[in-house]
Amino acid sequence: MRGSGEPKTWIQGMEIRRGTFQDFEKVVELLRLVFPQDERGYYFSFLRFDPFFHPRDVWLAVSGEEVVSCLFLLRRLFSDGERLLLGGGIANVATHPDFRGRGLASLLLQEAIAQAKKDGLSFLLLVTEIPAFYERFGFQDLGKFVARIEPQGSGLSLSGVRGEEILSTYEAFYRSMGLLVPFRNLGYLRGLRVWNRYSSRFREGKTVASFRKVGGVVGYFLEREASIEVFDLFGKENLPNLPQILQSLGKPLRLFHHLVVLRHLGVPFSRDRETVMVLYLRAFSGEVYLPVADYF
């Protein structure tokens, strides 16, 4: 519960407040109602494996004893190889069907933005299919882009890759691109592996996305029965030959990446149906990029 000195906000008889450990089970019940495609383990994995996560970063609307709306503010470090910036992600925005149309999500978002500013975050990111809603709060559309690559032959296959190689290749690649990306270490990779296996975005049946290697290039691949999804891709060499490498995997492939990288590769691409948005809270130089593998 809140401390006695912390002010409470009420709207239409509902309390607006930050979450507690005791609330979390009810939060997950609401999220499973609104997003039944994702398992309970996905949400609980934030508690268990995200070093920055605390239930107080879940904003709630509570009616009686029931959590009727929620929003997560997830904190993340971003790096361009030279500096670290603290950013945040808005995720798991959900309202019970019986309580929609009352502006609860808007109110929770306003609370989260105010807290992010108070805590000194540099920016907030989110992934959405309704950008017009978030534009009202100052978010800007960064876009999400995908290239479709058809197979030509089947001479290559995906192989395993050690965490140390993932990290060194990732850091070198994005430093060369001049992009601010999520800071990854071995602990972060372990958490990523756990929470993504519960997410419908990164699995198909018993097949779960993972970091793999092909032709000297490392990527985050989901190998479906008839196609391949690539949610991140980076390498120290062989980039000029990357389209040919991917064509040699023998299946139609969708590659999600930053606009600069797709243009560098010379492959045709288009905008995806969902998009990434950013709200800048502090002035800084550089361009922020959130790989799909790191989506909240």
From TrEMBL:
Keyword set includes Protein biosynthesis: no
* Membrane-crossing segments per the record: none
Supply the alphabetized keyword list: Acyltransferase, Transferase
InterPro entries per the UniProt record, alphabetical:
Acyl_CoA_acyltransferase (IPR016181), GNAT_dom (IPR000182), YpeA/RimI_acetyltransf (IPR050680)
Q: What Gene Ontology molecular function terms does this protein carry? A: acyltransferase activity, transferring groups other than amino-acyl groups
Q: Which Pfam families match?
A: Acetyltransf_9 (PF13527)
Q: Which residue range or ranges hold the N-acetyltransferase domain?
A: 14-176
Name the record gives this protein: GNAT family N-acetyltransferase
* Organism encoding this protein: Candidatus Caldatribacterium californiense
